[in-house]
Amino acid sequence: MAQGYCDSRFVAIKDAFTKNLEANLDLGASFVVNVNGENVIDLWGGHMDAARTKPWIKDTITTIWSTTKTITSLAALLLIDRGIIAPLDPVAKYWPEFAQRGKQNVLISHLLSHQSGLSGWEAQVFFEDILDVPRSTKLLERQAPWWEPGTGSGYHAVTFGHLIGEVVRRVTGKTLGQFITEELATPLGADFRLGCPDSEVDRMAEVVPAPPSTNYEGTGAGHLTPNSVAVKTYTGPPLDAGIALTEEWRKSEVGSANGISNARGVAKLLSVIANNGVVNGQRYLKQETIDLIFQEQSYTLDHVAATKIRFGLGFALAAENNPTGILPQDHKLAYWGGWGGSLGIIDMDHNMSIGYVMNRMELGKFGNTAGRQYVTELYKILNQQAQG
């Protein structure tokens, strides 16, 4: 049964949410749509655990995997807005050791658009290794790019947060997690953090991994040659959703993957962008900073995802033949999603941010069956309202 609030215009989504829980399409989930700073949909329900002994309640949180990247990008945009870093500056300006092995011309914009050539680790690493963020970041610092930086994207599945996080640390003296908490989550009242302190563990839902597959993160990369960028990325480190059940995961700060939140937290943070930089009367970003997001950085066949992705600064953007299959091609959109199904979407045309977070994972490129259904139904309703 769906709990929470739903504006009467969107009752079909609440009905679908309830049906999906009853049909076991979702185990536990939350779905939030924020328009002009207000939640018009704020739903939750289901269970926190596979055994169905704990109900998913209003403040339940869980790992959101790569939807974390949207918040890491927001943190970088905050630094750009303040003039502390600039998109066209070399990364080495702030992190001198990064310049080694042919990386002297890698720009901040390349990090934010998956174009640095560092989409995975050359050294053999496992997920446990990348939880030691300083050590695994040092390995990236010493690594040569896998393709010429700035010539196209290759999805930085795990390295994205390490790279941007180190820039944040160099210019602020704070870890990425500290910076997000102090500068974004706390002032906004958003339920989000990297990792999870012991005090919050009781409300953290259990991640239920999808059945194993060789098609890494649903990308179809499994058929590629062993030395391809895609396979090197998804085996360096090898994906292991079970890591999210460990104390080590909760104690680490992985800016690509271990954001712990719910749909309300994601939608609240992304409302900073959707509302043109202002939330609750406080300005977080200038309009010109938000405009940077929508400047196309790359629109190529992604080396890792094996599909064309149009990247702006920090986010994927709407495009013809949109790889999501559910988002409008003609809207001013910025988005990304997480392994297993979570979503973070910004629609500037509606001043709307969307968050979807669940605990049972499903293989697929963008969203799971339930989340895709809610977003599809949302746009169907909005289109009907616009027409009449």
TrEMBL record:
Domain Beta-lactamase-related: 19-369
Domain of life: Eukaryota
InterPro entries referenced in this protein's UniProt entry, alphabetically: Beta-lactam-related, Beta-lactam/transpept-like, Beta-lactamase/esterase
Pfam families per record: Beta-lactamase
PANTHER family: BETA-LACTAMASE-RELATED, BETA-LACTAMASE-RELATED DOMAIN-CONTAINING PROTEIN
Name of the protein this chain belongs to: Beta-lactamase
Record organism: Elsinoe ampelina
